[in-house]
Write a structure and sequence with these properties.
Elements (H helix, E strand, L loop, with lengths): L1 H15 L6 E4 L19 H7 L5 E4 L2 E3 L16 E4 L5 E3 L13
Parallel strand pairs: 1-2, 2-4, 3-5
Length: 107
């Protein structure tokens, strides 16, 4: 009886834990001012998407060529898989060897 009570208590506590994993999106139509939480509100750069990730999250990258370098320290955790993937396999190309387009000041 005591074991059933403990198992039930542990199961109840685990069931109350919120799901913290999120999915973020990057695509060529996006903007880094967006929240990245849907395809319609996607980020424009992979770096912005990677910066938004927490352990266990997923970053889905839309088709296209992205002329940027990406850097991140401490991206994952031993107990949670963090996934970075192309929306359609083989269609997202990160071109860290190509200089980014020229920037222009925006008022």
């Amino acid at each position: 009886m005591k074991n059933k009570l403990i198992v039930g208590l542990v199961a109840s506590v685990l069931a109350m834990q919120p799901l913290v994993a999120a999915e973020y999106f990057v695509n060529k139509q996006g903007a880094d001012g967006n929240d990245g939480k849907s395809r319609g509100q996607a980020y424009a750069t992979i770096q912005k998407g990677v910066d938004a990730l927490a352990a266990g999250d997923t970053l889905t990258i839309g088709p296209g060529e992205y002329p940027e370098g990406v850097k991140r320290v401490k991206l994952g955790a031993a107990d949670a898989d963090t996934v970075i993937r192309a929306e359609i396999r083989g269609t997202a190309l990160l071109r860290g060897d190509v200089a980014a387009p020229a920037f222009a000041k925006v008022d």
